[in-house]
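Our collaborator T.R. sent over the components below with a one-line note: 'Predict the complex.' Nothing else. No constraints on interfaces, no templates requested, no preferences about which chain binds where. So this is a plain run: every listed entity goes in together, and whatever single assembly comes back becomes the starting point for the next discussion.
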Amino acid sequence: MPVEVRIPTVFRRFTGDRSVVEVGPGTIAEVIDQLEAQHPGFREQIITSEGELHRFVNIYVNDEDARYLEKLDTKVDEGDTISLLPSVAGG
Amino acid sequence: MTDTLYFSKEHASEMIEHCLQGRPNEACGVVALDGGRVQRVVPMTNAAQSPVRYVLDSREQIVCVQLERDGFDWAVFHSHTRTEAYPSPTDVREAREPRPYIIVSLADSKPVVRAFRIVKDDYLNDREGRIVEVPVHVEG
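Returned assembly:
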């Protein structure tokens, strides 16, 4: 079973309007590389120029916040679901 | 997209109570929506812990994915501890979605609840946006 990546509305312009994209297993960093290969321009929305997860984006692996797992090194197995969510903030 | 948000008296009270409890800091959370009707209030932690800024706690924000999986839409609420129930420049700048933003003002003795969409051409890059009010109706 592939890894399912759920894409929020704000990023769907990079995925041809798809709300779900399938990739193979690996680390989150490798999954993002796969997303970039399928949908160029996607990576820079999630990863900063320093190679860190952008603070405006949250990544969840099976409902767990990747920042509290191994961040970009978090392993993602077949059948797992990755959910991307823009952070919500204001004042 | 909904034109009016409908709260039961109980849900409105629950949301307002969470905002009052959060003082002196801004409080925040989400509401689950079925059409325009609030089905559930989800009080959340303000990770910014500030009287002038809120950030939905990233771990708690997974509830938004779960709500969508369960077929609900959702809207964000947050409080303004001293200013009116109207989007601040920060609210406009940080808005990254077309969904309604509910604002609870605690400036006066009687809390005020209003909601708005921040309309942008490019939610990723635009810092400016057009503020469009979404009527809020509290039943009961």
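Summary for T.R.: The first helix of chain A runs from residue 28 to 38.
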